[in-house]
Every structure is written in structure tokens, then in C-alpha cells.
Amino acid sequence: MMNSFTSQEINAQPEIWREWAAPLASRANEIREWIATRAPREIWLSGAGTSAYIGEALSRQVTGDGPLLLLLATTDLVARPGLGANRPGPTLAMQFGRSGNSSETVGLIDLLDAHMPAADRLNITCNPDSALATSQGPGPGETQAITLPPATHDRGFAMTSSFTTMYLTALACLDAGFDAGTALPALSDAAAAILPGLWSLDAPRPERAIFLGSGELTGIARESALKVLELTAGRTLTQWDSTLGFRHGPKAAVDDNTAVFVMIHPDPQTARYDMDLAAEIRSQFPDISVTTIGGKGCDIALNLTGTAGDAVLYVLPAQVLAHRWSEALDLPVDDPFAGRNLTRVVSGVKLYGWQR
């Protein structure tokens, strides 16, 4: 099944990033200037599922004197609109969506229209015909949209190139120190160098897989866990956590049938904690697989580029392993649930009007 849409989309990421580098650099510069002019007090990072994990990573990563970055998933805001409605100061609502048409995406657009027309919006999507790409608020808030290259609109069930490219796009818009024009080609080279080796890793499918990381890599760990859970149709149970948070109860999930993946952060201070945890688990569970992911000396070495975008490289092992383990279960990788309890685009959620 290596000719699946999903495998093609995983392997296409290096070329997608390379071709997107110059257009993104130009557009991101415009967006950063626009954000500076509009001067929001807060930027909401919103999406559902994988799209929300983009915001989870960014909210733990981008620092400086700019607006406060808040992770407010569309699934939270649609269910509890009051979470955002009464916050002080000007707001930029930044929403991510592969299809741009999921129920919660539309629900948040409707809520902003009705209750926060003064909020600015920055919509990032892979679908040029979607509600996210084409909607314009009633004003006075302004709306900007970025539509990613067509190749990112994954045809497979799982989000792969859409996740990484939306993440890099948002990072370029929020972090003036991240130069997409030079960083994306470097990330492309790094990903192209490691992908062939990932497809040939000796890594049998475990009954449980746990992904751990610090800072922005906590969001990457969450996305990694979801990829395995989705593509194995739930037959490999997964868990994710922060490196230091894992000891505070969640480590109870480790048993003799568990594989643990610890992401070693590029920052040397943070990496100390990651390495200590990997050593601890190896000592306590000598018979299970504990794999470190990161720079030189790790079990899976990533050829890190030294840019803030390196976080996308950490998700590649899980994308590949999820595909391989799905194949091992004889599942249709592009639709592991055969259209039953989970579908590629969430739709049909009943949306309820809200009175402030």
C-alpha cells in the first residue's frame, strides 16, 4: 500500500515545503505587518483535532513582546462561546482547517459574525473553495486568508502534509525570526534525508504507543499519538503528554506491551529533562521499546536545522509508523474506518445559536 494517497502525501512534504518557501515568505511578511498595524491584544489559535494541535504547539513556542497567544480550539469555543466573548481588548481570531468546512469551523465563523464583528480574522486552510477561505466578516474587523498549495489538501483520511505546512505557515506569520524563505528549503532537505530511513525502521506494531515531548513538542507528541490511533483504527491505543507531566500519573499506562517515544528537545536545557525521562523508563521497563527522537545521538536522528520549524521533523516518524502499522493490520490506510464511525471531514454536528 505504499502507493496509498497517505504515503504519497507523507513523502511529498519536502517538495511541498520547498515550493512554498518563496510565496510564504512574501505573504507572511505582509501578514506580520498587518498584525502589527491592527495591534491585537490576543491572538486565538483555533482549529479542531489535528488543526487544534497546530495551535497547541505554537502557543508553547512563540515568545516575545507581541500579543498573547491563546489556544482556544473551535471545539471548545463552539461548545462554550463565553470562553472568548468577554475577553478584553482587540482580538485576532486565527483559525486552521484542512477542509475549511468542518462543522466547528462554520460554527466559529457564525459566532464571530454574530457576537464579535470587531475581531480581526486570519484563516489558514488547504481548500480554496471552503468557508474558511472565502468568508468575510461583517466588519469592522478585517479578514485575511492564506490558502496553502493544492498538494496539502490531503486526500487520505489522516492529516499529514496539511498539518506540517499549516504549522510552518502560521509560524512564519507569528515569528519574525522565522524566515520561511531560507528555513523551508533547509527543512525540506532534512526531511528528504530522513524519510527513506523511517520507512525501513525495525519497529513492530505495539499494543500501546506513548509519545512525549516538552514545549512545542508536547503538541507534536499529541499529533503523533493521534496519527497512530487514527491509522490503526484504534487498535493501537495511544497516549501523549509533556515530558515532566508524564510522571504525575499518566506513566501508569506503561506496561510490557508499550512502546514509548521521547522527543528530545533541541534546547540543551530542555533536553536534559527529556533524556532523564527516557533513561528512567528504560531502567524501570528494561524489556520495552523506548525510542528517543531528536538530534545527533538519538535513536531516530532528525538532522535538525536549528530553525524554529524543526518541530515538524519530529512528527515524521509517527506519520510513517502509523502508515506501516496500519498496513500490518491489513487496513485501508486512506480510510481505516471504511467511512463508519470516523470520516475525513467532520460534518453534521448540530449547531446551536447563542445569546450573550
TrEMBL record:
<dbReference type="InterPro" id="IPR001347">
    <property type="entry name" value="SIS_dom"/>
</dbReference>
<keyword id="KW-0614">Plasmid</keyword>
<protein>
    <submittedName>
        <fullName>Phosphosugar isomerase</fullName>
    </submittedName>
</protein>
<keyword id="KW-0413">Isomerase</keyword>
<dbReference type="InterPro" id="IPR046348">
    <property type="entry name" value="SIS_dom_sf"/>
</dbReference>
<dbReference type="GO" id="GO:0016853">
    <property type="term" value="F:isomerase activity"/>
</dbReference>
<feature type="domain" description="SIS">
    <location>
        <begin position="190"/>
        <end position="336"/>
    </location>
</feature>
